[in-house]
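User: tokens in, sequence out, please.
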């Protein structure tokens, strides 16, 4: 059984085939017959777990298993503790309420790699970082949750899935998961 941890850069499509307009996983990972356990949209960065084990892939990606996924989110605007409390209670989205999340303010992560292209900077608009831990994974869920608060996501990094983390792994690089 193979388990690969990949730090997906911004702009990469989280699949092995594409139409040539954007890079895909195949541009970075030369291993055959492994598949991503869940996805990150092209605008998001960070940890993608890939495996050749279908049962493990299901356990990682299916919401019924409630494997925690940790995100570092840069939000636009001066968010307050009340906004985090809404995330902790669950937010009603067009496809139903989210499960309660764990949410806390964090300083801008130290040693964070630069994003290409960089986030647009506006002096007149503050931004804050939060750590958000979800146990479900809907399409663009984090972005929709922060937008519902009135604080759009500027940068989204999946830092951890279960016990696996992207720590020490530069964008576009991969490694075997520890056994």
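Assistant: Sequence out:
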């Amino acid at each position: 059984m193979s388990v690969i941890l990949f730090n997906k850069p911004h702009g990469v499509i989280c699949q092995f085939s594409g139409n040539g307009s954007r890079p895909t996983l195949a541009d970075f990972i030369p291993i055959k017959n492994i598949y991503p356990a869940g996805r990150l949209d092209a605008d998001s960065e960070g940890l993608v777990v890939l495996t050749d084990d279908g049962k493990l892939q299901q356990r990682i990606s299916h919401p019924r298993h409630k494997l925690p996924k940790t995100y570092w989110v840069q939000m636009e605007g001066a968010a307050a503790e009340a906004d985090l409390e809404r995330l902790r209670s669950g937010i009603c989205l067009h496809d139903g309420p989210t499960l309660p999340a764990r949410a806390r303010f964090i300083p801008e992560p130290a040693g964070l790699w630069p994003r290409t292209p960089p986030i647009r900077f506006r002096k007149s608009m503050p931004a804050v970082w939060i750590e958000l831990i979800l146990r479900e994974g809907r399409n663009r869920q984090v972005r929709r949750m922060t937008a519902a608060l009135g604080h759009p996501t500027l940068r989204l990094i999946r830092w951890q899935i279960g016990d696996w983390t992207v720590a020490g792994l530069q964008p576009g690089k991969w490694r075997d998961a520890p056994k």
